[in-house]
């Protein structure tokens, strides 16, 4: 996000199992990305599109 010429960034920290992190790192590396770049791309797409690729994975409970 830009405010004038000043870029405002927030730090996001997550806890994840080492095996999952290592496997994801390898997938991203093969595609020329770091995990940080991939996560930033993911969040940018969610913000730009107003939806998540996970939206269709979950069905609301019928009442």
UniProtKB/TrEMBL annotation:
<dbReference type="InterPro" id="IPR026262">
    <property type="entry name" value="DinJ"/>
</dbReference>
<dbReference type="Pfam" id="PF04221">
    <property type="entry name" value="RelB"/>
</dbReference>
<dbReference type="GO" id="GO:0044010">
    <property type="term" value="P:single-species biofilm formation"/>
</dbReference>
<dbReference type="InterPro" id="IPR007337">
    <property type="entry name" value="RelB/DinJ"/>
</dbReference>
<protein>
    <recommendedName>
        <fullName>Type II toxin-antitoxin system RelB/DinJ family antitoxin</fullName>
    </recommendedName>
</protein>
<keyword id="KW-1277">Toxin-antitoxin system</keyword>
<dbReference type="GO" id="GO:0015643">
    <property type="term" value="F:toxic substance binding"/>
</dbReference>
<dbReference type="GO" id="GO:0000987">
    <property type="term" value="F:cis-regulatory region sequence-specific DNA binding"/>
</dbReference>
<dbReference type="InterPro" id="IPR013321">
    <property type="entry name" value="Arc_rbn_hlx_hlx"/>
</dbReference>
<dbReference type="GO" id="GO:0006355">
    <property type="term" value="P:regulation of DNA-templated transcription"/>
</dbReference>
<dbReference type="GO" id="GO:0006351">
    <property type="term" value="P:DNA-templated transcription"/>
</dbReference>
<comment type="similarity">
    <text>Belongs to the RelB/DinJ antitoxin family.</text>
</comment>
